[in-house]
Amino acid sequence: MSIEVNNESGVEVDEAEISALATHVIAAMRVHPQAELSVMLVDEGAMEQLHIQWMDEPGPTDVLSFPMDELRPGKDGDEPQPGLLGDIVLCPAVAKQQARKAGHSTEEELLLLTTHGILHLLGFDHAEPEEEREMFALQRKLLLTFLAEQGRPAIKAPEPTTGSHAPRAGTDPGSGS
């Protein structure tokens, strides 16, 4: 499994922990062990530009996901396919604001957002209430199992957000970013 974490945000983050979480989530979702993932951390200005470019929405957001090969979670009896899972872009400055409101640390918020972004890459969404319940329950389960394996206490999960963190259908994030 290839996971690349690049921090261009100017904020100190635990890149190894983000990578370890991503490895945990990808393995738990039974994605092919040779899948590739890129996680980039950017400042508010860069995130705002991406948010406008891909979502046509103003202001910075917390996480954007750019799926590449449309990999899906493995299922019993299926042989998962190798490929490029995609890119996740995180904004620590926005994560810090959200963490303060949720009552946990910025690091924990970044772990939550990483999990959220990977689930978007795997085709999960939260546009409909049923999808939201499924995605957020899975997100919580994956994050809690990771934290338990690390010997860390559980975090309070934030209320579900509105909107989407993945580019609209028909866009080609691989060609522009």
From TrEMBL:
Its main location: cytoplasm. The keyword 4Fe-4S does not apply. Keywords: Cytoplasm, Endonuclease, Hydrolase, Metal-binding, Nuclease, Ribosome biogenesis, rRNA processing, Zinc. Binds 1 zinc ion. The keyword Nuclease applies. Residues 153-177 are annotated as: Disordered. Zn(2+) binds at H116, H120, H126. It holds the Pfam family YbeY. Its cofactor is Zn(2+). It is found in: Cytoplasm. Belongs to the endoribonuclease YbeY family. Single strand-specific metallo-endoribonuclease involved in late-stage 70S ribosome quality control and in maturation of the 3' terminus of the 16S rRNA. This is Endoribonuclease YbeY. It comes from Spongisporangium articulatum.
